[in-house]
Structures are given as C-alpha cells and as structure tokens.
Amino acid sequence: SQQGEEDPQALSIQEGENATMNCSYKTSINNLQWYRQNSGRGLVHLILIRSNEREKHSGRLRVTLDTSKKSSSLLITASRAADTASYFCATDDVSGGSYIPTFGRGTSLIVHP
Amino acid sequence: NAGVTQTPKFQVLKTGQSMTLQCAQDMNHEYMSWYRQDPGMGLRLIHYSVGAGITDQGEVPNGYNVSRSTTEDFPLRLLSAAPSQTSVYFCASSDRGEETQYFGPGTRLLVL
C-alpha cells in the first residue's frame, strides 16, 4: 500500500503566490523526498530531508518534516508558470526492508500567469 | 551520460499478447525498479532489483516478470497483456547508499 499521501490533490494559484502542499505517511522513515513531474515526463528529484532534520531549503523550495505527526510540507515561494507540474512525496520504510521508496498519489499544481 | 532510457515510448497491444519493456541505465547504479502510473493512483512499485541476479516483488507484481542479468539492463515482461495493464510505465535507478531515484521518460502502454 502507498506510504505517503499528498494534500491537496489539486492546487491552482496565480503567479507570484506561494504554493504549499502536504504529505502524510504511516510508518517510521529514514528520509522523505519530494519529486516533480511535468506532464508526460518522468519524475525529477527536488529535495530530500532526513528524519533527524526539521527544515531544509533549496532555492525557492522549503521543506519541513514533523516526525511526531508523520507529516511533511513543501513550500514553493513566488510561484512561476513553469512550476506547473505534479509533486510527489516519497518515503522509505525502515521496517519493510525495501531499498526502494514508495510514492504518494501526488498534488497537481497549476500556476496561472 | 544518457541516464535512464526506456523503449518503446508508446505501444499498443491486443489482449493476450506478450511484450518486453526495455530499461537501461549508464550510471552503474545497483538499484533499479519499475513503477506503473495510473490516474489518481500515483506511482505503484511493480518489481525492483538491488543488483545483477537479484529481483524482488513490489506492490503490484502480478502479470509481470523481470530479470537482471546485467547492471545496466532491467527489462519488464508482460506475459499475457490485459486491459488492466493499460498504464504509463516508469523505470528508475539509484545508487547504493543514495536515496535519489533517477527516472526514465516512461512507456505508454495501451492494451485493447
């Protein structure tokens, strides 16, 4: 079953606004990753945050992790039309033994110019 | 580096036909995996491999076979295609000790 669940499923904003999407997961993790998928393309890695980190930044991206609530958020500041894509969180499972992360269903972000 | 490549880009099959989706990577990654992506379902893991000669099942393995004879290649075989296998298939690879997945461009499969 899928470990992470993103919220909201869809988000529509104007260029220049901030976009926030959330990810909740079920079991303990070593790390959580965020990926981006442009329409019709493969996923591209954005950022990784480890279980002992609370916040991480990369350019206009800010990721937070709250292991007590088993949740993470991805904030994209000053959104651009080019940020239009689907965003997925991916988590490993410390108990499952799999070396491969599992993905949520994603948040579809539309940024209107 | 070409990264992760997948062929074909698009394929139409009739129910009952078999085919192989090809995946290759030139980054010498040990881990490779196959996902399928369906509307509203996100990515679901089909099979994965942690090295040549080693494969294991993911969340949705039924109807698919894999093998890993070399580090570079990880083909996915559909034994007898069914309409429920209509989907977009993604191959991904990662290095041992590194969590980042590198994805191929995907194969769109339509089973009639």
Considering the chains and any ligands shown, give keywords for the structure.
heterodimer, A: 113 residues, mainly beta, 6-stranded mixed beta sheet, 5-stranded antiparallel beta sheet, 11 strands, 0% helix, B: 112 residues, 7-stranded mixed beta sheet, 4-stranded antiparallel beta sheet, 52% strand
Mean pLDDT of chain B: 94
Oligomer: heterodimer
Let me know the largest β-sheet of chain B. Answer: 7 strands, mixed
What is the percentage of strand-forming residues of chain A? over 45%
The major beta sheet of chain A can be summarized as: 6 strands, mixed
The helix/strand order of chain A is EEEEEEEEEEE
Q: In whole angstroms, how far apart are the ends of chain B?
A: 36 Å
Low-confidence stretches of chain B: none
Mean pLDDT over the residues of chain A? 91
Number of helices of chain A: 0
SS summary, helix count of chain B: 0
Please provide the count of β strands of chain A.
Answer: 11
Q: Quickly give the structural class of chain A.
A: mainly beta
Low-pLDDT sequence parts of chain A: none
Instruction: Give the termini distance of chain A in whole angstroms.
Output: 37 Å
Residue fraction in strands of chain B: over 45%
Rg from Cα of chain B: 13 Å
Question: Looking at the structure, what is the overall shape of chain A?
Answer: globular
Write down the Rg of chain A. Answer: 13 Å
Structural class of chain B: mainly beta
